[in-house]
UniProtKB/TrEMBL annotation:
Classification via Gene3D superfamilies: Magnesium chelatase subunit I, C-Terminal domain (1.10.8.80), P-loop containing nucleotide triphosphate hydrolases (3.40.50.300)
Residue span, AAA+ ATPase domain: 21-162
Keywords in alphabetical order: ATP-binding, Nucleotide-binding
Phylogenetic classification of the source organism: Bacteria, Pseudomonadati, Myxococcota, Polyangia, Polyangiales
MF (Gene Ontology): ATP binding; ATP hydrolysis activity
Family: Belongs to the MoxR family.
UniProt name for this protein: ATPase AAA
Highest taxon listed in the record's lineage: Bacteria
Signal peptide extent: none
Entry keyword ATP-binding: yes
Length: 300
C-alpha cells in the first residue's frame, strides 16, 4: 500500500483502519495529491471492484444508486445497478452534488442497501466509500451538514509528497499509475472475516471511561459550540478496535483512542464563532480537538 502512496503512512493507515472497521472516509485535500491512487491501491489490495463517480450539480440519485427500467422482453421492471454497487466507491468532490443526491448516497452507506420503489437491494460486502472534497474551492458547492459528516468514520488529508518522492515522480515523466504494482493481499471474503474479527476485539471499562471523558471534554469546552455525539464515540471505539486488528492485537490500548481522536472527532465538532460570518478552518478544528484530548488523563 505504501509503495503506491509513498511518504504518507498516516493516510494509508487511517484508510485501512476505516476499511477494517466498516467505516467510510472523507478526504479533504487539493486535486492531484493521490486520492484516486489511494482508492485504487485499496481496491487492488483486497481484490475488490473499484468504481469512481465524479459528483456534479446535475448528478441525480439514480445516477449513483441505479434505476428501475421496463424490460419489454419479460414485461416487467428490472433494476439496473448504479456505480454504488462496488467494493470500493470513490465519490469525487461529493460537495458538488445537490443535497438530494448527497443524502441518497449517505443513506445507502448507512443502511448497507439501496431502496428503489420499495424494493431493497443489499450492497456488496465489503463496501467502502472514499469521498473527497477540495477545501480550497467552495464556489458552487453544497457543504455537507453535520448530520452527513457524521456518517464518515474518519477525515484524512494526504498532503503534498516529501521532496524526495516528488523528485522521483518528476523524473519518471508522465503520470504513472502508482497503484498498478500493489499486490493483492487478501480477497473480499477474507476482508469480511477480518471485519467480523474487529467486533470481537476487547475494549475494557477503563478505556471506555477514558473515551467517555474525551467526548465529555468536547461537549463542555467553551471553544466548541457543538461537541462529539454518541455516534462519534461509537465510531471512535470501533476505529480503535480496527487499529488493534491492524496491529495484530485482540485488545485495545489507550493509544488507539488517543491517536485516532482527531481523525474521528474533528469533522464532527464545531468551533464557537469568533465573528459573524467567520468560518473556522480544518486546522483550527483539529487543533482544538487535539488540545482537549491532551488534557484528558490517559489510563495507565
Amino acid at each position: 500500500m505504501e509503495q503506491a502512496l509513498e511518504g504518507k503512512p498516516e493516510a494509508v493507515e487511517l484508510a485501512l483502519i476505516a476499511l477494517l472497521a466498516r467505516g467510510h472516509v472523507l478526504i479533504e485535500d487539493v486535486p492531484g495529491v493521490g486520492k484516486t491512487t489511494l482508492a485504487r491501491a485499496l481496491a487492488k489490495a483486497v481484490g475488490g471492484e473499484l468504481r469512481r463517480v465524479q459528483f456534479t450539480s446535475d448528478l441525480l440519485p439514480s445516477d449513483v444508486l441505479g434505476v428501475s427500467v421496463f424490460d419489454q422482453r419479460i414485461g416487467q421492471f428490472v433494476f439496473r445497478q448504479g456505480p454504488i454497487f462496488a467494493n470500493v466507491l470513490l465519490a469525487d468532490e461529493i460537495n458538488r452534488a445537490s443535497p438530494r443526491t448527497q443524502s441518497a448516497l449517505l443513506e445507502a452507506m448507512n443502511e448497507g442497501q439501496v431502496s428503489i420503489e420499495g424494493t431493497a437491494t443489499p450492497l456488496p460486502e465489503p463496501f467502502f466509500v472514499l469521498a473527497t472534497q477540495n477545501p480550497q474551492d467552495f464556489a458552487g458547492t453544497f457543504p455537507l451538514p453535520e448530520s452527513q459528516l457524521d456518517r464518515f468514520m474518519v477525515r484524512i488529508r494526504i498532503g503534498y509528497p516529501p521532496p524526495q518522492v516528488e523528485m522521483r515522480l518528476l523524473l519518471q515523466g508522465g503520470e504513472p499509475d502508482r497503484a498498478r504494482n500493489v499486490p493483492q493481499i487478501i480477497d473480499p471474503a477474507q476482508l469480511v472475516a477480518l471485519q467480523r474479527e474487529v467486533d470481537r476485539v476487547e475494549l475494557d471499562s477503563s478505556l471506555a471511561t477514558y473515551l467517555q471523558a474525551v467526548l465529555a471534554a468536547t461537549r463542555s469546552s467553551p471553544t466548541l459550540s457543538l461537541g462529539a455525539s454518541p455516534r462519534a464515540g461509537m465510531n471512535l471505539a470501533r476505529a480503535a478496535r480496527g487499529r488493534a486488528v491492524l496491529y495484530g492485537r485482540s485488545y485495545c490500548i489507550a493509544d488507539d483512542i488517543h491517536d485516532l481522536a482527531v481523525a474521528v472527532l474533528a469533522h464532527r465538532v464545531r468551533l464557537s464563532a469568533h465573528a459573524e460570518g467567520y468560518m473556522p478552518t480544518r486546522d483550527e478544528c483539529e487543533a482544538a480537538v487535539r488540545d482537549l484530548v491532551a488534557r484528558v488523563p490517559v489510563p495507565l
